[in-house]
Amino acid sequence: MLGKRFNRMALGSVAGVMLMAAAACGGGDGGGTTASQEPTGASSEAPKDALKVGLAFDVGGRGDKSFNDAAYTGLEKAKTDLGAEIKELSPSADGSNRGDLLRQLADAGYNPIIGVGFAYGEDIKKTAEEYPDIQFAVVDSASNAPNVTGLLFAEEQGSYLAGVAAATKSESGHVGFVGGVESDLIKKFEAGFVAGVKSVKADAKIDITYLTPDGDFSGFKAPDKGKVAAEKMYQDGADIVYHASGDSGLGVFQAAAAAKKKAIGVDSDQRQTVKESDLQSVIMTSMLKRVDVGVFEFVKAFQGGAKGGSNVTYDLKVDGVGLSTTGGEIDDIKDKLDAAKQDIVDGKITVPAKP
């Protein structure tokens, strides 16, 4: 079940159909579906105009080797596979101009438009009301208007597998978690990770640190803070640290390399996206969050005539989240990870979404 790549074709076909189905029964009430369920409807007639897709990144922008880069991969695939004209914009360091970016794209004729990150929630809602003829999507936030699609992920499920891997591989029985911002979204990563660790070793010690409080998004772009937090954990005896902190994760990897310990990446296969070879070797796995698939399938569904008003959730059943295996460091525990995944898919394990 685990591999260097998920089955893109299988996931793409299921997720694409589900976006179309959600469009048919959407009504702007925040209702939705998971990409695991059967479709129940069809889409409307496809747009006839040229496909122009706009995307506004979260803080950190393109090049974060994680969340934003995963979204860009999906955007680039839309250009390659669907012939889309694409435009990407990045917010200011504090993210205060998110709404301006969305309006800039709308005024330039881009449709659909995607906001990357839960912080776009309110700005997407306002902009969607101002531009009712344009379709929007927001990653990590629920639909809040008839022309908005929410692209959601079961981060807690993928993080549970990361916890199983960390607890199984840890020699000290002591691991850590570094969150970028103490928000409800990042707490899903923490909750799943802790549950996974405890499922293997009930008495494991787990250090937890958040770089900034809720509302302060600088925690996603502070490698220095990430490094300090992880250094403290390694000094205190942790031998594996999992981060969900965007660009700040680079500091976690640097601390792991200095301590000759291990780390777990997030969102993308960071053993492949991080360029420094000395840092690549400390990343034993990454919790993959297939934002690229969500972005691409939304655009593909739009091209087919889909409308917003609903949510689509990417979970373990469709490999919307999971673990990377680059480097082969978790190959020897594949059976244990596969078993945990299957128990979640079958409903035998319900992973908590809150600490």
From TrEMBL:
<dbReference type="InterPro" id="IPR003760">
    <property type="entry name" value="PnrA-like"/>
</dbReference>
<keyword id="KW-1003">Cell membrane</keyword>
<keyword id="KW-0472">Membrane</keyword>
<feature type="region of interest" description="Disordered">
    <location>
        <begin position="28"/>
        <end position="47"/>
    </location>
</feature>
<feature type="signal peptide">
    <location>
        <begin position="1"/>
        <end position="23"/>
    </location>
</feature>
<keyword id="KW-0449">Lipoprotein</keyword>
<dbReference type="GO" id="GO:0005886">
    <property type="term" value="C:plasma membrane"/>
</dbReference>
<dbReference type="InterPro" id="IPR028082">
    <property type="entry name" value="Peripla_BP_I"/>
</dbReference>
<dbReference type="InterPro" id="IPR050957">
    <property type="entry name" value="BMP_lipoprotein"/>
</dbReference>
<keyword id="KW-0732">Signal</keyword>
<dbReference type="Pfam" id="PF02608">
    <property type="entry name" value="Bmp"/>
</dbReference>
<protein>
    <submittedName>
        <fullName>Nucleoside-binding protein</fullName>
    </submittedName>
</protein>
<comment type="similarity">
    <text>Belongs to the BMP lipoprotein family.</text>
</comment>
<feature type="domain" description="ABC transporter substrate-binding protein PnrA-like">
    <location>
        <begin position="56"/>
        <end position="353"/>
    </location>
</feature>
